[in-house]
Give the backbone structure.
Amino acid sequence: MRRPAPASSEKAQTQPPHMLIPASTDRTPPVKNGPPCLNHGPGMQSYMETGDLSEYTQANRRAMNAAAPLHRECRHELLMTRFKEKGYSYLTKVQTEILGRIGVSGKAVAQLACNNGREILSIKNLGAGRCVGFDISEAFIAEGKELAAAGGIDCDLVVADVYAIPDAYLGQFDIVFISVGALILLPDVRRLLGVVAGLLVPGGTLFIYERHPILDLFHWGDTGDPPTISGSYFQSEPTVSTTGYNYWNKQPYDSPPIYRFHHTLSDIFDACLRNGFSITDFKEYGHDISAVFKHFEKNRHRLPLCYSLVARR
Ligand SMILES: C[S@@+](CC[C@H](N)C(=O)[O-])C[C@H]1O[C@@H](n2cnc3c(N)ncnc32)[C@H](O)[C@@H]1O
């Protein structure tokens, strides 16, 4: 089957940002009467077969570069102030505890899809050795370099598609870190963990701290308890929206198309196992790290809202 190209432009949609739109083609029958399907991409299998992810990643690069100045307005000054404090860490308690157990002192650490680098800069401030953050967005990496300079933090922030990281980085890292909001923008989790395997030294560690994929079933504005399911857990098509990606102030705006990819927990476990990782720690939590499902924390019917996964290779 010929793979259709991602849409380059389209009308703004009415859905709120950060919402994963249910797919029309599904591993299960399509959701009836759901929000309009905006799919312009192929099923996961077809682009896994063609092997070409670049059109999606280039589309997301444009969307993230458009989002960067809006994110910057919301948080840049505060981050600049904070990173000027010696040893400042933006990391959450869970991230800090797990990194403490893994042991970062003097270790070489890479973060994939690092955005403006606030997490990898914090890892450096925890005492890590060489630190490198990779992100596809020139604008976010530029902001990260300002933060690093403000704090005098020695951390390389590199503009790179995680699926095309230069060979010079192969086998260079003790720890690879992937954190909230990265996986949903990355089309192929199995290939991603193949990249991670290549970056790690033998015996190296992967640490993922991510929003739970069950959140892809809900609209972020849904305050029901339990919330209404409006997507399928087994959706395999990418989804696209043009209402923006500002999870800081949650204001919609006209955005270049943003492609999102749902990965089930079994997709993630499978990707670990097929790339030679042993999962040493996995935990689901009831707190929100997505910034848009905070209200779910108070529900009587509790959902898993995020998870941590540690794996060794
Ligand atoms: C929502 S941010 C979250 C990252 C980080 N955990 C944070 O909280 O800032 C996701 C990042 O993934 C980046 N990204 C998306 N696709 C990418 C790709 N193919 N390669 C590298 N970075 C990518 C985006 O530019 C964006 O900065």
